[in-house]
Amino acid sequence: xxxxxxxxxxxxxxxxxxxxxxxxxxxxxxxxxxxxxxxxxxxxxxxxxxxxxxxxxxxxxxxxxxxxxxxxxxxxxxxxxxxxxxxxxxxxxxxxxxxxxxxxxxxxxxxxxxxxxxxxxxxxxxxxxxxxxxxxxxxxxxxxxxxxxxxxxxxxxxxxxxxxxxxxxxxxxxxxxxxxxxxxxxxxxxxxxxxxxxxxxxxxxxxxxxxxxxxxxxxxxxxxxxxxxxxxxxxxxxxxxxxxxxxxxxxxxxxxxxxxxxxxxxxxxxxxxxxxxxxxxxxxxxxxxxxxxx
Amino acid sequence: xxxxxxxxxxxxxxxxxxxxxxxxxxxxxxxxxxxxxxxxxxxxxxxxxxxxxxxxxxxxxxxxxxxxxxxxxxxxxxxxxxxxxxxxxxxxxxxxxxxxxxxxxxxxxxxxxxxxxxxxxxxxxxxxxxxxxxxxxxxxxxxxxxxxxxxxxxxxxxxxxxxxxxxxxxxxxxxxxxxxxxxxxxxxxxxxxxxxxxxxxxxxxxxxxxxxxxxxxxxxxxxxxxxxxxxxxxxxxxxxxxxxxxxxxxxxxxxxxxxxxxxxxxxxxxxxxxxxxxxxxxxxxxxxxxxxxxxxxxxxxxxxxxxxxxxxxxxxxxxxxxxxxxxxxxxxxxxxxxxxxxx
Lengths: 294, 343
Known about the structure:
heterodimer; A: mainly alpha; MetI-like fold; 2 domains; 16 helices; B: MetI-like fold; two-stranded antiparallel sheet; globular
């Protein structure tokens, strides 16, 4: 009882820590709220030097369009500049990257978790070093051979490269998830006459989904957020969302249509919001999985 | 597990890693030893009634043929590593002899592209990492003290800066610090200086990029430390309280030692990720004042018609060596632990 009382007492320290959290939350959320709200205004409001409240009430937006909100930026980005095409490409790249990463990763991660030999350790170490390679250094190794073999610029090349870049992390995280599944489960199945693969298929696959979903989220994020690989390896018409925004910046800034880029940025961020909203627990457990083991 | 079963299970994953991570590194090494073909010049004499003139022009046809026969370029040994855009051996030694003070020498060296990028990359890494560690820990302690009902939404909001696409996140902040954006315009009003621009000055650009880095990475350290705080043994905390330890003492002597392995883990990931800083420089269009190793590789590869494979390869090699130096302590530690387990 006394301990509880001491902990719940309001002190200077607790006020300080509370206000610090509040400040952080403001810093974390404000840029998103501001940009989301501003994306429905015209440029003169979003960049209103004279009075920042214009951006909130949309003074210029009302003058130019008659209403306080406008979807002009979104129309310009999606229809006029063909952002929907980039969204399509992104969907294809992300879907295949996640599926292939998880298929290869579960097989490899399972093997690494169940093998006690020294080479398993070395593969994990190599994966750690590979995980640290800046992506752009690998890209500088791809470009030349890809041009020579004429496989530059197409979606399948990018997908397979993203899968490969993703493998080290996928292997590490799935390997630690499989370590948490008791060995006895698949070994008893093998005693009953299953081969290793049958034991994997009938015993491990039914119980591995929580780990796979968490890993899948991170594969998704890698493919979704990548800029270095997609911008260098995809040709103009195969562009995904992030390089499309980057090339947008070059094109639209001269034409004074920054709002197109703002709308595209908000469109790109929205799915990530939903992802965090629905999978918060898995993301947190994935972030900490490596740490708890390490 | 039998060797052959292990082999078949790991095969797809291993093949991909060898083909698309290990071999590209080999390809980078080879590229870095080659350089673009020299220009084939033709001198043509043209005579008119007023006399003869010699004009030099590029022989496009011969160039095309050279490129076709030898697409990698000509062998250059370590020449690319020592040229002006990399280690700049000549320029540095010249600067050393000409300069009268160490400061002058330093300024000259920092104007060379490679050293400029290296300085920014290292500064960024060693500034952002401790800030993220420290602030992330502070926020984690703060959130841990919140009433239970507030914790979920707080974590949701806190995750956003990390989960957002780096390029998109930097663009969002870039528009806000623009001279006409909300933060930029407010700063101009506060300092009563209409020409104040975060983009125009080198030091302000650096600060802006580092603030972005802290904003982007703080959630990661926060989440890991927050999860770690849940595992601090309550009995020890209570025992320390009974012994008369106040909040600070409990924090210093119980909580922080308990979280130490996590601090090392977070630091390792942060060092790896900060060292490859790249997207914010593109997003903030900051390349006039701040370049990173990753950015100069990107810039070499962007050369429209013929990417500078040799130059990009050499910088890539040096970046890879940098990463390995960063990782050495961890690798040695893991190696030792593995051996202790083995014996």
